[in-house]
Write a structure and sequence with these properties.
The chain has 5 helices and 8 strands; from the N terminus they run βββαβαβαβαββα. With about 160 residues, it is of the alpha/beta class. The chain has a domain at about 40-125 and about 135-155: Rossmann fold (3-Layer(aba) Sandwich). A 4-stranded parallel beta sheet has the order 4-3-5-6, sandwiched between helices. A two-stranded antiparallel sheet has the order 1-2. Strands 7-8 form a two-stranded antiparallel sheet. Helix 1 runs parallel beside helix 5 (about 140-150) and helix 2 runs parallel beside helix 3 (about 95-110).
Amino acid sequence: MADYSSQTFLNEEIRLPHTNFKIGVVTALWNSEITSKLKQGALDTLQKAGITNITVWDVPGSYELIYGANKLASEGFDAVICLGVVIQGETRHFDFICDAVANGIANVTIQHNIPVAFGLLTTENQQQAVERSGGKHGHKGEEAAWTILKLLERA
């Protein structure tokens, strides 16, 4: 296989077999001040790797990431990146949403046998979300895209 794209991220080079992959980026609109940064980081990372066939789909909230990922996987996408943020509140809603999204995304991966990145921030407060969307704790949108690229090396 020819090396069509090479990118270094997290101190590791990625060598894609081609750049014709069809990748979906599903982003929750809830907490959009954070999720828009995650989405931009993911898109920038994919584009730096030479990926041009990218479909962006914004869904209402993190729970809907499951539907978005499943729909794109059903339509023949090679990989899907799911991006969202759930911030701890005063009720157990946080626990239910985080658990449902984690299990739902895992099921999409298993059912469709494609990589689906779990780019869901599950934080105790807004500041932690900011720190993980390009702040002092890195950029989880970029990391989710890198994860997909790394898994597509063997596609």
